[in-house]
């Protein structure tokens, strides 16, 4: 993973929340929030909360006496999340590095992370930190995207950009969001970190967007892919977005976009 892969700043948080969350993240946020609610926990830590898709879903399902600590490495993303739940007394907001969490050991019943573990520079260390802050009977719940071949929209975006920049193709999508997608690897890393009772569930959803341009804008301007584009075509992100949209039309058509998305939902504990 490259250093800029985890940089969500500038205009990215707003575009991410407005376009990418409804396209990709809301269905999986509901799945994970349902699972967290079934665990019947009081103290919940969310890692890599982003703009709050999972945070909001958990807030809708958890009881009045729950305590939710939402954390993220990037303050601009966390600020965007906080704005949507500013009046919820159950919430605490904390800038935090998943590899060195600023929390006491055995402080939480659940650690939840939606589509954040792929960005950890050291996956096992991130899992170890989750285990450290969990109580002995706590549960670690996270999601990770399946491979590009099972996510046609993301695959088409990367293919389109590879054709535009053949001498220096962008590889953010395959390298990071879709780069931690082998169940055997997930299981091995979790065991190395000390987790047991590991359950890995493959879940598919339908993704919908009003048009290919909305899809292109969501990915090209609402993720760190934007930085890769700007490095190759300074000042031309709008033009590149338009060209990506054109490249998507043969596969997805001129009307509303419908496709499948695939990810893994993982639950594990210390015993």
From TrEMBL:
It holds the Pfam family Methyltransf_25. One of its GO terms (biological process) is methylation. The keyword Methyltransferase applies. Keywords: Methyltransferase, Transferase. InterPro entries: Methyltransf_25, SAM-dependent_MTases_sf. GO terms for molecular function: methyltransferase activity. Residues 44-138 form the Methyltransferase domain. The keyword Methyltransferase applies. This is SAM-dependent methyltransferase. The lineage of its organism: Bacteria, Pseudomonadati, Pseudomonadota, Betaproteobacteria, Burkholderiales.
